[in-house]
Write the structure tokens for this entry.
Amino acid sequence: MAKHLLLPALVAALLPLALVPAWAAVASAPGPNVATVNGTPVTRAALIERALYETTAGADLLNEMVNELLVEQEAKAKSITVTKAETDARIKTIRDATPGEQFQLYLRMQSLTEKGLPGKVRIKLLVEKLLANQIQVSEAEARAYYDQNKDQLFNVPETVSLSVIKSATEAAAKAAAERIAKGADFAQVAAEVSTDENTKAKSGRVPGALAKVQLPPGVAEAAFSTEVGKMSAPVQSQDGWWLVKVESKAAAITRPFEQVKERIISELRTEKLRQAWEKWLTAKRKSAEIKSEL
């Protein structure tokens, strides 16, 4: 399996929706126009003409609808159903994982409206049930994936949390260092003289924990060689001079298998579902009698 398939749990929960294109029935509107521009109408007929015959959008949407009908027909033949409760539960999972504006961003990425989401989720659940016997992942498979990808995916490097003061010149950096050596508070000096606007407003504090590869050369060496609670000598990078205070350090670790097992199983299952869906759809479209009038 490709190593890149191991996504965070959130992404794993959301991306499978893209396996099955979705379409929502559009209720007939009361009037012939969909918009007006300075009083000039954009007619519903013109929109349909453009979508169906002047762009690829119509053909793409038709393909999505055909795919969904094939799923519906197969599910009916096998007496497979999805309840509203199951659909609602999956939508709740998505909403819980994408709070606030993230949910709207998710819908845009899926080219969906809130109205269209339940239909797409329902089809996705039907596909999961139709292909259930092809997408099981054993603990042995998960363990093998873990062992094969441990170094690349499950090793967490040593990190540091920092406060910094940036100066345009070495002289300015040394002056700031002298003030701190004489008893001035690092955070106060950073707020007063640092030229790095991103951290100056936070009294020099750099957000988050940083691995060595995330820091500029020079700064990285200073950060990882300085003791916790201590300040480095001035160090130069490509864009200035820095004083680095190490707030904390975290040793490198390897996440144990039990900690990531469920995440691996979920991602391997997602990959199996993608492959099984592509194979199933290809076979069904080949055997089905599909007549397009476009």
